[in-house]
Protein: ABC transporter domain-containing protein
Organism: Desulfosarcina ovata subsp. sediminis
Amino acid sequence: MNNPAIIIEELSKCYRIGIQESHDSLAGAFFGFLKSPWKNYRRYRSLYRFDELENGTGPNCQTEHHDILWALKDVSVEVKEGEVLGIIGRNGAGKSTLLKILSRITEPTFGKALIRGRVSSLLEVGTGFHPELTGRENVYVNGTILGMTKKEVDSKFDEIVAFSGIEKFIDTPVKRYSSGMQVRLAFAVAAHLEPEVLIVDEVLAVGDVAFQKKCLGKMNDVAKSGRTILFVSHNMGSVGSLCQTGLWLENGGVCMQGDIQSVISAYMDAVVAGDGANNPDEWKRKGSGEAQFSRATLLNAAGDPSQAYKMGDSIILELGIDIHSPLQVIDHIHVGIRRSETGTNILHVMSQDSGLIWQGVSPGQRTIRVEIPECMLYPGSYRVALLMASGVTQLDYIEDAMGFEMRENRVSQRNVPFAYYSNSAVVHVRSQWSEVEPIDGSVVLNVAFNE
C-alpha cells in the first residue's frame, strides 16, 4: 500500500471580514496598538479561542465592524503517494484556500497539513515569478526554490522552453508577458521540474485551447509517473478523466470524498437540485404568457430523474405546459443545449422535427416528452433553454431552465480521454476507419473493443 504523501488533520482557516484599520508603516501599526491596547488584545486573543469563534460568541465576533468567515473548517484528508485527487466545489467552497495552505502561502488558524516531498504549485498567473527577471532567469529561480541544483535545471531547460512555446521571448522580462504567456511558462516549469507533489488550480483556464490540451496531456504523463497531483477545476470532464479520487468541498468543509465519478455524480446532483434555474418559480421568462412551461424534468432511459449522463445515453426531457388562452396553433416548441463553460450553442431540436403541431388549442395542461437518442456530447457541463411560439408570436422563452452533465464512456477504441479534446470539439460521431492499400511488410494492430 502506498504511503500517504499528504496528511491533513482538522484543518481550519478563518478570516476577519469588515472594516480594518490600515497602517502605512511599522511605526503606525505600533502606535495604533498603543492607542487601544485592550481592544487589540481581545482581538488577537480571540483568534486562538476556537469555541468562541465557532459559536460566534467571542469578542471578535461581537465587534461592530468585524465578522468571522470560515474559509475552511475541520478538514481532514489523506492523499496517497501517486494519487491524483480532484478537488471540486462551488465558488467560495474553500478550494483555493486549501491549496494556498498546502503551498505554504498562508498559515492555517487551526490544524495541520503535512506533505512529504517537494511541492510545485500553480495557483495564479505568474505565481513565483519576478516581473523584472527574464523568463530564463525565472526558470532557474523557480528551480532553486524547489530545491533543484543548476545542473538539474539545465537538463530540463530545453524541454521547459519547448513545451511553453515562447522560445522567442525567453530572454524578455516577464512583466512584458501576456497572462497566457505567463501561464505557459509557469506550467511548463511546474510540470517539468519533477516535484513529488504537483498542485494545480483553475489557472489553466487562462491559456488557449491548444495549450490546455497540452497541459492535460502532460498532467496525464505526470500522473502515470507516480507523482501526486492535486487538481482543482470546474470542468468536470477534465477532472473525471484525469483524477482517480475526488474531494468535494462545501462551505469550507468536506462534503464527500471517494471515487471521482461517485463524487462528481453527487456534486452535480446537488448543484442541479439546488440551482434556482431548475425551479419554475424562479425561471426568468420572456413572451406573451398565453402558454407557458410549467415544469421541466430530465429523465434517463429507464424514466428516472437524472442530471448526469454518459456518452451514448439517451436524454429524455419531460415538459409540462399550461395553456392560459385559446390559441389557433402552437407550432414551435424548441429545446436548445449550450456548453456551460463557454455559452456556445451546441444542439437545437424542435417539435416540428417529429411533426408535432397543435391546432385549435384550448386552455388546459399538456405534457410532452423530447428524446435525444444516443447523445454523443463530449464530457462537460451543459445548460438547457426552452422556447414555445405560435407562428411569429413568442409565447414563452426560458434561457436557463436547467443543467446536466455529460461524462466519459467507452464509445471508441481511442486511448486518449474524450475530455482531452472537449475544448476543441463537442460532439462525437461514429466513424469507420480502414486501410485501403497496406504497405508491404506493414502490420495492422487490431485492438479488441467491446461497446
About this structure: The domain at 74-270 is CATH 3.40.50.300 (Rossmann fold). The chain is about 25% helix and 35% strand. The chain has two domains: 74-270, 277-407.
